[in-house]
Amino acid sequence: MTPLRRYDAIVIGTGQSGPSLAVDLAKSGRQVAVVERHRFGGTCVNTGCIPTKALVASARVAHMMRRAAEYGVTTAETVRVDIKTVKARKDAIVGRATT
Question: Which of 5, 63, 82, 95 has the smallest CB count inside 10 Å?
Fold first, then answer.
């Protein structure tokens, strides 16, 4: 049987403040446990704020490119969105935020 461990603090969730709180507590000499139900970073980093902003940025660029002529800018080709590349960019941004 594994012996029970004792902690001075248990941080529940790795959203915006969880990781920095855990580090600060550990640096002060406390024994700290971090509990995360799913993926490190919480909702904002993985499925909320950050991925949404990445997708919106791509949509904004496509929108502005389609309106380029209104600004005196012409393009040789029709604007197309490669959703696989957009998703890969979003996934890379999320990946950098969770490692």
Answer: 5
Q: What is the pTM of this model?
A: 0.70
The fold adopted by the segment(s) 42-99 is Helix Hairpins (1.10.287)
Q: 43: part of which helix (H) or strand (E)? A: helix 42-46
In which element (H, E) is residue 34 found?
Answer: strand 32-35
Pairing of strands 9-12, 32-35: parallel
**Rounded Cα–Cα distance for residues 9 and 96 (Å):** 27
CA distances, 66 to each of 14, 55, 75, 80 (Å) = 39, 17, 9, 9
Domain residue spans of the chain: 1-37, 42-99
pLDDT of 2-13, one tens digit each? Answer: 788 899 999 999
CA max distance for the chain: 74
